[in-house]
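Support request, please re-run this one:
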Amino acid sequence: MSRSDSIILCREQRVDVFCADGTRRVIVDHPLNSPLVGIPVQTAMVRATDFTAEPGDKTIAIYAGKAGGSCRIATAETTSGSKGSLCLTDWRVEPGFEHEPAARDGRTVHRVVRSS
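Re-run finished. Output below.
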């Protein structure tokens, strides 16, 4: 089985992962971020520096923390890749940020960083 795409989080970033029915499945929050408040009971919360797409994941949204809140900086969709892997495609990145994909160990690792 091929390895699925993943995202490396920068500090002050989190990933919200949505299923095909639009339900938020999990929030992956960088471990150095301030604690999140107001997380719905049905949503799992994980502190990690990366996220790997799993079966059932449909849409991911990356948020960056700002004073007093957060804003969405990028979204992507999952598609089936070779040998059962999941690929993150159809990237939509907000102005002021750049999507940086890199091939590693048979998968693509994605980062979204501020534009210089």
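The two ends are 37 Å apart (CA to CA). The mean pLDDT is 91.
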